[in-house]
Amino acid sequence: LENLLKNFQGFSALGLVLAMQMAIGFAEGVGLLTAAMRKAILGVPLWALTATVLFLGINGSIASEAAIIVVPALAAAAFQAVGMPPIAGLLAGYAATNAGFTACLIVSGTDVLLCGVTELAAQLVDPSITVNATANWYFMIVSVFMLTAVGVVVNKYFIVPRLGKYNPANGEAGAADASGEITPIQAGALRAAGIFSIAYIALLAILTVPKNGFFRGEDGSVLNGPLITGLVAILIIYFILVGIVYGLKAGTIKSSSDVPTIMAKSLEGTTGYIVLVFVIAQFINMFNYTNLGMIIAVKSAGALQAAGFTGIPLMIFFILLCCVVNLFMTSGTAKWYIFAPILVPMMMMLGYSPEFAQVVYRIGDSTTNAITPIYPYIPIAIAMAKKYDKNFGMGSLISMMLPYSVAFLLGWIVQLVIWVTLNLPIGPGAYVFM
To answer: String of b and e for 79-103 (b: at least 16 CB within 10 Å)?
Structure first.
């Protein structure tokens, strides 16, 4: 009773998530992210089309769940325009934005959200531990390129042959025009946003490269400087400023009052998350207060060690466990709230870092998104596909997604084994082992 509000107010991930969502949601609200994805997908040569769709879809978590709707629709239109089965493009986009959702070239809202929960769970063992939003950055950068390559193989050898030659008569008239080209005004706005992005990166370089640069730490290293520790704030500022540049040029921002209005609207979808945080904050602090998480972690770690079930088999077991649970509980954050207080301390007892425990969870949570029957975006994907094939249904979608899910899972497991074997850094200052 005494700490009910204090637990909620002190939930470290809440402020980070709201600030990140406000910035990225603003960039999406003015039309920047949608226009950028449309330009990228509809403007590439045939030989690079599939890889581009997968690459953009995997990085779509930057735009949160908006990419799940935008990328498959654009990919289908692009595939049809070059004479390829449009459903093959739609499926590639859907697989990338779902089964590869957690991977991204830059730190996204997912990183910010998960690291706060991971830090609280790790502090059950060591109160001094901190987990940064960049904790899995290196691993996820490599994951983007690995999943893109795997997806291209799956699309070429497993999906396109099954679909056969596209027959427009089976679909609805006008399906090819569903997404259209960007307008000249949008193209000019994108050009302005691109120039601003280059200038922003150049400014960061100027403040980082010199030995006495502002973004270097007291010891002179970049790793311990504001560039890494303040990366989330740097990204928030970037998305807001580049959104303003695009919005002014595209006409989606007509006055200064539009900026806070669009930002406020971008937070409307986070109300469910805030309610969930209120409950989960009590749950995690109760774990801390009772030491229940520590007891379960110690006992489980001891049992696993006694049974010899450690190392890579243990990691694969947890990945598969997360895959199965994901079929029945689609909210990745809700699952991590449940798993983290047990999984993180237990793996720490076995010598693995909390950052690595987070990687293990993210793999299992991501790969089965595309084949989860209760996933809220499945009806949308089916409706998109029916524009090109009236007989396409739930069974068609899940059967076509299975090769992607299995291939992504196997690819990630192989990458994980390589990381563990070589003890490579999974992020700035974060390693596999403690």
So the answer is: bbbeebbbbbbbbbbbbbbbbbbbb
Neighbours of 396 (CB within 10 A): 18
How deeply is 140 buried, as exposed, middle or buried, from its count of CB atoms within 10 A (0-12, 13-18, 19+)? buried
Nearest CA to 133 among 153, 120, 154, 119? Answer: 119
- CB under 8 Å to 80, separation ≥6 — which residues? 86, 89, 166, 175, 176, 388
pLDDT 10s digits, 298-344: 676 566 666 666 778 888 988 888 888 888 776 667 788 878 888 89
- Model pLDDT for residues 389-416, shown as the tens digit of each residue: 888 888 999 999 999 999 999 999 999 9
Read off the amino acid at residue 287. Answer: F
**In a 10 Å sphere around its CB, with 0-12 CB exposed, 13-18 middle and 19+ buried, how is residue 60 labelled?**
buried
Can you say how many angstroms the Cα of residue 184 is from the centroid of all Cα atoms in its chain? 31
User: 221: buried, middle or exposed (CB in 10 Å: 19+, 13-18, 0-12)?
Assistant: exposed
The tokens of 1 are what?
Answer: 């009773």
- Side-chain half-sphere of 229: how many Cα atoms within 13 Å? 12
Instruction: Write b or e for each residue in 274-285: b if 16 or more Cβ atoms lie within 10 A of its Cβ, otherwise e.
Output: eeebeebbbebb
Q: pLDDT digits over 236-276, tens only? A: 899 899 999 999 999 999 999 999 999 998 888 677 778 87
Provide the token pair at 201.
Answer: 């990166």
Q: Residue 208: which residues within 8 A CB-CB, separation 6 or more? A: 214, 215, 216, 222, 225, 227
The reply to whether the predicted model has a pTM over 0.90 is: no
